[in-house]
Every structure is written in structure tokens, then in C-alpha cells.
Amino acid sequence: MPFGSLWLPVVVSAIAVFLLSSVLHMVLKYHKADYKKLTNEDAIREVMGKAKLMPGLYVTPYCDDHKQMAEPAFVEKREKGPVGFITIAPNGQFSMGKQLFLWFLVALLVSFLASYVARHSLLPTTAPREAMRITSVVAFGCYGVSSLINSVWMMQPWGNTARSLFDALVYAMATGAAFYFLWPSA
To answer: Helix 158-182 and helix 96-121: axis angle, to 10°?
Structure first.
């Protein structure tokens, strides 16, 4: 089947995911539980400001190699705490337009990947239900797996991951539905 015949479901599913994510984040607001306020936030911000941290990812306590992890000084720091992963963003106003544009590009990429797998694993005569199944599974994997990885390695709370996996399921169903209704043999 010509790949051009799948551009419509790719774009429609990306738009659907983009709109659904707005509803999930701005209307339902269950993601408010994802973040917690620091106690004594102003003092912590002052210390971090004096450190002049550049945007990036930081870990505390920090070590250069695995050997250092066994050294008594490092072990003591981990035991005493705090242990954390910190993301520092650029100072200034948050550019929601840029972030939304990038999010749409991610949704477009996920839909493209789902269509790529469907195109190379299904025949043009395949029933739309099968196209929905394949594209939904690929989309769920793309939208959801990183949350699992973040819980395993970055200590993201599992509740955050559960909420993100619910989002991934909604996005996957929207992606699958677009391919169901717009599959070329439909």
C-alpha cells in the first residue's frame, strides 16, 4: 500500500492526541499530584540560585564512576541524604507555545511510527480492526514506556507513572480509532 494513503490517519491521530492531552491536563487536572512543593522553597531556591546552575539534569550525591559508589564517603552521603534528581530549566517565562509545538511533533512522530509498523505488517485488504490493534499497541508503547523507565531509574513515583500510563492508554485508543476509521480499506 502506498505510504501516502496513511498520512491522513497519521495527522488526524496526532491532532486527536494533542487535543485529548489538553483535556487530560487542563480539565481533569489529575496530574496536579505529579509534583510536590518543596518545604522551605525560598531558601532552597536561594542556594540553587547562588550555585548558578546551568539548565540540565543533576543528581545528588554525584559520582563519576561505579567504583566511587562503594567508597565510604559516597555511601555516607547517600545514607544521610537527600538523594535526588534535579532538572534545571532556563530562567525566564516558560514558552508554552514552543512546548505545545514540540508535543505535537512528538504525537506526529508516534503516529508516523504506528503507521510505519502497520504498513509493513498488514495488507491493504486488512480489516480496519486489525489496523487499530497494531497502531494502538505501537502508540501505547511509545507514549507509555518512558514513564516506566523513569520510575525504575529516576525514582519517579509510581503514582505518576500510573497516571502517565492512563494517558498513554487514552492516546493509544485515539490513535487506533483514527486508523480504524481512516484505514485505506475501510
So the answer is: 60
Please report, for residues 25, 44, 70, 182, the alpha-carbon distance to residue 37 in angstroms, rounded to integers and kept in the order given.
18, 11, 32, 45
DSSP state of 184: T
Closest Cα to residue 74, out of 58, 59, 61?
61
Tell me the helix, strand and coil percentages in the chain, rounded to 5: 70, 5, 25
Give the pLDDT confidence of 140-161 residue by residue, as tens digits. 999 999 999 999 999 999 999 9
| Alpha-carbon gap, residue 125 to 153, rounded angstroms | 43
Grid coordinates of 155? 525514582
d(CA 125, CA 39): 59
Q: What is the mean pLDDT of the chain?
A: 94
User: Which residue has cell 547562588?
Assistant: 50
